[in-house]
Amino acid sequence: MKLGGVKNSSSWFLLTLFVFSTIFGTLSFAQEETKKEEKFDELKYLSELKKKQEEEEDDDSSTRIRRFHEVLDELLAEFGYDVKLGQLNGLTNLAIRRVEVSDALPGTYRDYVKLLISERLRENSQLKIINCLPCQSRTSKVVDGKIVITSPVTNIYQLQTAADQLGIENFLDIVLVYHSTHMVLAFQIFKTKTNEMIWARTYNSETIRSRFQKLAVDYSQVAKSRVGEEYQPEYKLLVGIGAAGIPNVGGETVDRTMIEFQFRGTERFDNRQMEFGLMMGVHVTMATILQQYPTESGTTSTTSSPSSSTTTTGETPDLQPYQFALSLYGLYVNNFLGKIESYDEVRHGLHLGVGVLLTASYLAPIFRIGWDAYFGRRFTFSLGGVYITPSRVLVGSEFLETKGGMGADAILSFNF
Fold first, then answer.
1. Do 257 and 327 reside in the same domain of the chain?
2. 246-255 pLDDT tens trace
3. Where are the beta strands (DSSP E) in 15-143?
4. 176 and 185 in contact (C-beta within 8 Å)?
5. What is the pLDDT of residue 54?
6. Helix, strand, coil share of the chain (percent; to 5)
7. Do residues 386 and 406 make contact, with C-beta atoms less than 8 angstroms apart?
């Protein structure tokens, strides 16, 4: 009995040990599979994260390139806007001598920036741009057994020689400085004969940004527009005084001689080549100024009244000359300024006007043609010829025919 109990106990022990080992092995296998799955998921996550970072870096790279050209375009637009406002007026021609760019930019950007600047000059002015090929050439010679290379950029005498050959009066130097935080575009123009700097301007991208910030405007939300290409109307207002001699309803010489106050307001087109607007003239006769207008107006009107003249003698009554008159014109002006308007020179223009001459009981069509001479920026001298067509004057209750005629005026005006 004891031996059988021992055998049964051993069998149960072995069976229990087998069961526990099987369960432990199953649990270990499951745990290892779980770890493998977790490890696989982690590798997959790291792979996706790395791929995402690479895509973000590519996006950042493309954004950086886009921002560079966007800022450069803003600086060029500011330059074009200043050119369109006339800051380079007075220059007949220029040539781009040298373009310098930062070391961070490729050397090919020199030609790229040169083309962009030339494009803005052509779009916003009629300035003649000369391509100075000799300015880019280099010469070499042997001096004391050494090869010396020179160019017009470093040799001022070669530069003046090239300018004389091509008729270049001004040279333009350009500098483009690029940093990761901002960009600077600088210009310098100097005369070829005297080396005198006549214009210089620097455009900083941070200055443009601060300008909007001072206006409490979010710069990132500002639409990037090319202000240099937007239409900016330009007006001219002339106020002048002078002398005129025009027909005055058959009056005497003192009645036809007048003091004229002239006001002209026009809008300029085609880079100041053409103007269109209105002109008004206020005419005061010399008889009125000298107080020689007939004092016996009552007697004169009685003897030459239309009723008495027409009923007794049948003659046309005498027409009294006016003392004040107003002329209104629609005006067109064509200015002969050449390619660039220089305030150091006398410019000329031709104007045409169509309008009316009116005073009390009198209205007559009037035509005008004139010549203008512009001195500096503020003064204009004008000579004009006028023609007044025949018209009618209301005398009492009767309209009487009046003759027209030719006239002229000379006006000195101030330009506001």
1. yes
2. 988 767 788 8
3. 93-101, 128-129, 139-143
4. yes
5. 63
6. 35, 35, 25
7. yes
| Interstrand relation of 93-101 and 128-129 (parallel, antiparallel or unpaired) | parallel
**What values do phi and psi take at 153, rounded to 5?**
-70, -35
The span from the CA of 300 to the CA of 245, in Å, is: 25
Which domain does 88 fall in, by range? 70-130+167-229
User: Distance between the two ends of the chain, CA-based, in angstroms?
Assistant: 138
Query: Is 272 in contact with 292 (CB distance < 8 Å)?
Result: no
Tokens coding 210: 């601060």
Pair 211, 245 in one domain: no
Mean pLDDT calculated for residue range 134-158: 70
404 and 364 in one domain? yes
Angle between the N-to-C axes of helices 2-84 and 109-124, in degrees from 0 to 180, rounded to the nearest 10: 40
Q: What pLDDT shows up at residue 355?
A: 95
The number of beta carbons lying within 10 Å of the beta carbon of residue 359 is: 18
Domain-ending residue, one of 229, 250, 274: 229
SS3 147: strand
Residue 40 has pLDDT above 70, yes or no: no
Mean residue pLDDT of the chain comes to 77
Q: How many domains does the chain have?
A: 2
Same domain, yes or no: 238 and 225: no
Helix (H, G, I), strand (E, B) or coil at 28: helix
Which pLDDT does position 383 carry in this prediction?
A: 96
pLDDT at 228: 45
359 and 398 share a domain? yes
Please choose, from the candidates 281, 282, 277, 280, the residue with its C-alpha nearest in 3D space to the C-alpha of residue 265: 277
Q: At residue 68, what are phi and psi to the nearest 5 degrees?
A: -60, -50
205-214 helix and 2-84 helix, angle to the nearest 10 degrees: 90
Give me the CATH number covering residue 325.
2.40.160.20
What's the CA gap between 157 and 151, in Å, rounded?
10
